[in-house]
Design goal:
Blueprint (H helix, E strand, L loop, with lengths): L2 H27 L2 H15 L9 H29 L16 H20 L2 H12 L4 H8 L3 H23 L1
Helix pairs in contact: 1-2, 1-3, 2-3, 4-7, 5-6, 5-7, 6-7
InterPro entries: RNA_pol_sigma-70-like, RNA_pol_sigma-70_dom, RNA_pol_sigma70_r2, RNA_pol_sigma70_r4_t2, RNA_pol_sigma_r2, RNA_pol_sigma_r3/r4-like, WH-like_DNA-bd_sf
Organism: Ensifer canadensis
Keywords: Sigma factor, Transcription, Transcription regulation
């Protein structure tokens, strides 16, 4: 097979599989425009790549591998560019959002309502909620402290949270 014939075979393979190659690159990159660019770059590398005789299957595999590698290169470059664009401003230098007086009042009302609901709960249920939700204890630790099963601690916390959520939703409407 002459070099000219090999070149024609490569062009025929590329033309026949170009739509599939673009679809493959779109799945990797998420962009049709970028995928078309990658497939074109792959063709530029594919056409003069070797003068030795190989099967059409090997040529197609080489073409897909080239598209994949070029796509991964693009994804790496995007990731590096995204990291480079992150703001290096320390969190403490960014001003905090100040709530409006109305938001502050509503928050205070919600806190009062939650406090009232907690005070109405049985002691074990109140302690379970306070430990788990406010203290950061696990349900196993809450159960151990109260001398109850983990399932009971879970029931106490769930029932109390449902009661709180319901009361807050009723007040919101």
């Amino acid at each position: 097979m002459t070099t000219e014939t090999q070149s024609e075979t490569r062009v025929d393979i590329f033309i026949a599989h170009r739509p599939a190659l673009i679809a493959y690159a779109v799945r990797l990159l998420g962009s049709r425009d970028a995928a078309e660019d990658i497939v074109q770059d792959a063709f530029v590398r594919f056409l003069p790549s070797s003068t030795r005789t190989v099967s059409k299957g090997q040529l197609l595999a080489y073409l897909y591998r080239t598209v994949r590698n070029l796509s991964l290169d693009v994804l790496r470059r995007r990731k590096v560019a995204a990291i480079g664009h992150q703001d290096d401003v320390p969190f403490w230098s960014v001003p905090a959002d100040v709530p409006t007086p109305e938001q502050s009042t509503l928050l205070c009302d919600d806190v009062r309502r939650i406090s009232q609901i907690l005070s109405e709960l049985p002691v074990e249920a109140r302690v379970a909620v306070e430990m788990h939700r406010f203290g950061g204890y696990t349900l196993e630790e809450v159960a151990s402290h109260l001398g109850i099963s983990t399932a009971s601690a879970h029931r106490y916390v769930t029932a109390a949270m449902m009661k709180i959520a319901t009361a807050l939703l009723v007040n919101a409407t």
